[in-house]
Amino acid sequence: MKVLIIGSGGGEHAIAVSVAKSPQVDKIYCAPGNAGIGQVAECVDITAMEFDKLADFAEKNEIGLTIIGMDDPLVGGVVDVFEKRGLRVFGPRKNAAIIEGSKAFSKDLMKKYNIPTASYENFTDPEKALEYLETAKMPIVLKADGLALGKGVLICQNLEEAKEGVKTLMLDKQFGDAGNEIVIEEFMTGREVSVLCYCDGTHIKPMTSAQDHKRAKDGDQGLNTGGMGTFSPSPFYNDEVQKFCEEKVYQPTMDAMKAEGRDFVGILFVGLMITEDGPKVLEYNARFGDPEAQVVLPRMKNDIIDVMNACIDGKLDQVDLQFEDNAAVCVVLASDGYPEKYEKGKVISGLETFDDKEGYYVFHAGTKLTDQGIVTNGGRVLGVTAKGADLKEARANAYKATEWISFENKYMRNDIGKAIDEA
């Protein structure tokens, strides 16, 4: 069987590594891919948004399954294009991917179907947003409605910051059209947990939990990023929390989407805040999270192709989803200056050290193969992942493995999972 993966980041690399383990697969392609993905798949020079070209490629090369890894093509409707051509594809259709594509849609969905989330208001008029802030409780959260590379969320400590945030999103258009509408919601406190779920339109099966670190600097300081590291599982996601989420969040979300005529097939990423009042939904994504995929997929025991086919065929309830009884930690190696200004094109050395190391992975996010070798080609460059018997051991292993890699302007947080390690 031939598989095509669409995307170019660390999440797609983690998917490719999982797909390569399946005995059903004899050839993997990735469009457009990156230098690391190129070691397990053949990279194809088609961008993720060239839907017809991608479908043409799938037809011509008799691709048995296409896996959509990225948010932009999902929200843009790539799955619909493939399905119209009779091609087998894993991911939600355009009318379901809106759950990630529009924060306002997802908040309204949760309100309508009583799915626990923070209280909020949506705004398309900057003046009305500013007026609302005058009487709002601080701190407060501002979210760009559309896709913003995981960075369109501003946590504002006071009124001045909040007003500046409205300007940034709605007037300065820092995230383009994503800020045409914004969500202003109450600031929640508690432990943040991410849960990726397989969905077949009717049934939903959560994977093991993870926790991302969004801020650029140690101690959760600095700007929001696409994610500086993760660990799995989260000790705060206990059996009681899972039971609550299965009854009040996961299945109700599937049922709500079905009731709206938007059957969700693919990966539903549920960002949760475990508050004093119980778990509440922070956000939904319509795909594997990055870097969450880098700690969740290496721990999955199932053949990923079997699970994805069950989702497409509406038979997910027949799958016994299993994960290893261990832990994994991912530390992102970034270009210094990320997420603002940073230099690319720095030669990376030490990647070969991972080739024969069981339980260690280096997932490429922003890399490129050149005549000089593999070089940096983005803000987040690599995700260094290691497994261990528990989180403490996995964390020690991951940080040890970061020392094997070097490149000019290499930057990382030094406290991924540290709070858990010390707990």
Set down the secondary structure blueprint.
Blueprint: E1 2-7, H1 10-20, E2 27-32, E3 42-43, H2 51-60, E4 65-68, H3 71-76, H4 78-84, E5 89-90, H5 94-101, H6 103-112, E6 120-123, H7 126-133, E7 140-144, E8 153-156, H8 159-171, E9 182-186, E10 191-200, E11 204-212, E12 215-217, E13 221-224, E14 229-232, H9 239-259, E15 265-275, E16 278-285, H10 293-296, H11 304-312, E17 327-335, E18 360-364, E19 367-370, E20 373-376, E21 380-388, H12 391-402, E22 410-411, H13 418-422
Parallel strand pairs: 1-2, 1-4, 2-3, 4-5
Antiparallel strand pairs: 6-9, 7-8, 7-9, 10-11, 10-15, 11-14, 12-13, 14-17, 15-16, 17-21, 17-22, 18-21, 19-20
Helix pairs in contact: 7-8
Portion of residues in beta strands equals: 25-35%
Separate helix tally: 13
Basic shape: globular
Report low-confidence residues grouped into runs of 5 or more.
none
Distance between the termini: 46 Å
Q: How many DSSP E strands?
A: 22
Structural class: alpha+beta
Helical fraction:
25-40%
